Amino acid sequence: MTGREILHKMKEKVGLGSSACDTGKGKSKMSKHVTLGYHLVKGKSSHPMEDYVVAEFKQVEDNELGLFAIFDGHLSHDIPDYLRSNLFVNILNEPDFWTETESAVRRAYRTTDTTILDKAVDLGKGGSTAVTAILINCEKLVVANVGDSRAVICKNGVAKQLSVDHEPSKERANIEDRGGFVSNFPGDVPRVDGQLAVARAFGDKSLKKHLSSEPDVFSEIVDEDTEFIILASDGIWKVMTNEEAVDCIKHIKDARSAAKQLAEEALTRRSSDDISCIVVKLQ
């Protein structure tokens, strides 16, 4: 066991790292109707759990922020752990966060990735996808992502995707313009330089010339038709469509129970990847 793996085990024992199966819940102080729940299940791989979540409500002066994120690592649990501790801090430290939120999120993603690359000796060679959602005063939702973790919102019982799956096959031209290539060998999944199955990610220093860490950012007004939000890693989305995920939990009132049900349904459908999901109920 390496020193990094020993440190990870120590963090798990004191509650600072993801575990094989972790669950939790919380609620807004601003609105009694807004609640959150999350559930994580380790996949069948032999390496430690590489999914990390943020799910909390935070008071900032007279405002309340719901901070939600899924960080899905590859060849690394250190980089998603670093993102969990630092990405939202960097976003909120942007001077124009309150006035130009979308621009602030984009800049914070870039600066965070630069720091990760600078710390590659300590954080290792792997990387992480990310999907983040910021709920501002229970009124506005700002979603950003790199990679294939996904955000889906349910309005009037209908699923709407609020993120972009950054697949190598869809971004082949950009990858090739940077000097890289997309190959289905080995295996049958398109990969950047035959190695990575996503076109955008944090970290991955050895592939960075051919990858992007630029997020797609979307804003959504939360109105009376908005029922709930799902954030989940690809351990869910490999086996379920957006509408199937929404239909699976639309009748479950408790957010944590909904997140657990979503994970269990993915397991029933034989998902073998790490599974992490957050459900935010808005009614």
TrEMBL record:
Upper taxonomic lineage: Eukaryota, Viridiplantae, Streptophyta, Embryophyta, Tracheophyta
Domain of life the protein comes from: Eukaryota
Protein name: Uncharacterized protein
